[in-house]
What does this fold into?
Amino acid sequence: RKEVEQDPGPFNVPEGATVAFNCTYSNSASQSFFWYRQDCRKEPKLLMSVYSSGNEDGRFTAQLNRASQYISLLIRDSKLSDSATYLCAVASSGGSYIPTFGRGTSLIVHP
Amino acid sequence: DADVTQTPRNRITKTGKRIMLECSQTKGHDRMYWYRQDPGLGLRLIYYSFDVKDINKGEISDGYSVSRQAQAKFSLSLESAIPNQTALYFCATSPNLAGGADTQYFGPGTRLTVL
It folds into this structure.
């Protein structure tokens, strides 16, 4: 089982839709969690960290479920500009806090 | 100006050639990383360095070497390039925060093609 797994998609949604992605991780000792956004042929950029209590940044909400070992990203009111690949990343002290990245979930928002 | 820069941005080379990819950063971060990204395989760690005197192998270091010339510079070398090293290569940096993982800041990437 891969350490960090994501559904590659693509998720194809209309503008204004709400869409959610999950990311499962296998290391129960994982301590730090992130979502990155990557546009086609560009570098990944941090979208948001994921905190234990969950956190929100505008239309984006990230949550952590330690019991089931997954993190989620919810995007409300999708915009065309949200079209990208979303990478989750998970880190633990045992791995020197170096994130392990999932393969990414592709989102396409259409008019 | 970009905080993390990579040169070259694109490179086409032939099998057996030696290639060096360079990374510079102005963020003042101690930690630097090299990743490669292949379609369907995501980002995989090649080497990382937590300071100038610290070099560590990542998940896929075979066929690669690195040099940390200064806090701001971390170069990746392919001593004898082979076609399956064709990929998008990213350099990244992160601060050294106590007690947790760090946000990674990526360079724009180098697209390498080995013929």
